[in-house]
């Protein structure tokens, strides 16, 4: 997954923060709540390294 896609999704959803952890889906802070983006693929170490 490209970081640009995540940032665009953040803007669309009104998210203030993006939490990235391996292995797991990205997590966005929306209205003060941490919401896992289950529709996004789990991030691999290679994804995060990019």
Automatic annotation (TrEMBL):
Region (Disordered) residue spans: 1-50
Name of this protein: Type IV pili twitching motility protein PilT
């Amino acid at each position: 997954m490209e970081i640009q896609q995540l940032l665009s999704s953040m803007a669309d959803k009104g998210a203030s923060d993006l939490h990235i952890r391996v292995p797991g889906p990205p997590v966005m802070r929306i209205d003060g709540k941490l919401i896992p983006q289950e529709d996004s693929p789990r991030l691999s170490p290679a994804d995060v390294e990019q």
